């Protein structure tokens, strides 16, 4: 199960109304309250699916969700993302989402398909809003990974894949946009195998591509599936087996003659891939037995739940093709809440060790309540496996709700990436300070990647996030939702400082001012961490005996961590360090906790003064897509920004450039790229790693910091920041 009792989870950003469902050519009113998604013990776990839809930006996630809701009768009309009718997709409820045509917040809803209750969360594809995907996957049982048939596996696809692996979420893959010029599902499948290392295979192949895309061939059932009419108004063959799904006719037929050989080859490949990951089917394969349809489906389900096989489905959400078979696959291959193991952490006051407790998925009140708050946004009761909304609850994303007698339990936390960019933000009108504080307080509670602190030197409020777009959206939301227009300063990159070689330290903190004084001595070594751990700080207690009593060791660690908040070169945080405490001394009377806090701080400063300190900068993985005729200007632009080109790829008349570029050099790149490609180029980027910056950048940052703190005279023509 994903949740014991209820997840304190907001389903959407506003309830979806009960709407008429269209069955064939007759309209029938459906009472959605009779199909309550948050069941009161009536619907068993086997009749519940909690799924998410995740992908790279512009892969068609929201459009796919819109079709799912329409064909299951949840909504009466379909609208397009950033549509011409000005309505927009139902899942994009925020005005900013409708204007920009992107998903900013994960939106949740529910529907029914073949008497199974499906809770769906549509997540953003932009890397700036990756926390929305992170916390959605934390509470979901399964997922649909959407790929663009033209773009294939892109950089955010790889991020989502890592997140699914982190939370052990089984998933199906849906290759979308087969109607687009240049679509190549075989290439996308090959990239899944090479870039994502998945044991993946088609369970469907397309009947035609691009403008000729007519339907799909089901390799398991060995039949063709056609989707007649834009919304099913026309019937091509009344003698065929007809199944009507809310105004669209799904017609089953024989596999076209020209595709029978390809279908047989792909079906054999499917059986081989599943046999490699499922023991039962593997035995049948070795015995040269032909598996039945039921055998193959059960084997695919077992392998999918074990994450050892990924079934790949095809379609075009925009052209209303392939959605219903995908819904059938969600029911057949993705787990119900009782098939997923969830653990709570038992926090004992007298022990640092945390014990994991397996949660029970029984849908009754025989077990204590434990639920995870993963999103902040009218039900009477909920049970294990449900996702529900709570109103009027004061909590933050990641909080755990339990019964009073079970307060020692907490759900496993959500992975939160560190912010990579900061800007100064203030209300344009001084009288709006209360509105500004209220908005900031709400945003920080609902988004763990949005951080705020007050800089005492510049007397400014500094907000930090995952990218320029991330912070720009919050500035616009502040104006729209709180009536508080904001002024933002120049973006500030989250630089870090570290050392280049190990350095020993021996520091004594001693102070005597009448009566009991302060005394603490620490001896050890300060070491740099490996490059992949440049964002971490480690403290190692290697002491023996009682020279430093064990109760004072945490004080030394606190002093070390406190002193890492500001580095000596540029004032940025220190990271990538390991503080190894080897020995020391204490005084029976004068030693106390504050003495060893000061000793830890002094030891770090002493070590930094005796070694070389360098500044680290965040490096971004950048993926640029542009027409071939602009290849030269694009490469020149990346080189100007100190980028390192990692590789190139090509699709039809477009090329894809992969490069690692310092974040500090990426500001304003979107404008430059549009300018040099006549508006035809686009790019995406995500955080990759930290690495030492160029000597010229380090010198510039150091001089600016010294000027700002008055340690260096300000050069003429420059105003002191």
Summarize the helices and strands and which ones pair or pack.
Blueprint: E1 6-8, E2 20-23, E3 26-29, E4 48-55, H1 61-71, H2 95-100, E5 107-113, E6 116-122, H3 130-139, E7 142-148, H4 155-166, E8 171-176, H5 185-195, E9 200-202, E10 204-207, E11 215-218, E12 223-228, E13 241-245, E14 248-253, H6 260-277, H7 279-286, H8 293-305, E15 310-314, H9 323-333, E16 343-346, E17 355-358, E18 370-372, E19 386-388, E20 400-402, E21 409-411, E22 421-427, H10 433-446, E23 451-455, E24 460-465, H11 468-482, E25 486-488, E26 492-493, E27 496-499, E28 503-511, E29 518-528, E30 537-541, H12 553-563, E31 577-585, H13 593-609, E32 613-627, H14 631-640, E33 644-651, E34 654-662, H15 669-676, E35 682-692, H16 695-708
Parallel strand pairs: 1-19, 4-6, 4-7, 7-8, 8-15, 9-15, 30-31
Antiparallel strand pairs: 2-3, 5-6, 10-11, 11-12, 12-14, 13-14, 16-17, 16-21, 18-20, 22-24, 22-25, 22-26, 23-24, 27-32, 28-29, 29-31, 32-34, 32-35, 33-34
Helix pairs in contact: 3-4, 6-7, 6-8, 10-11, 12-13
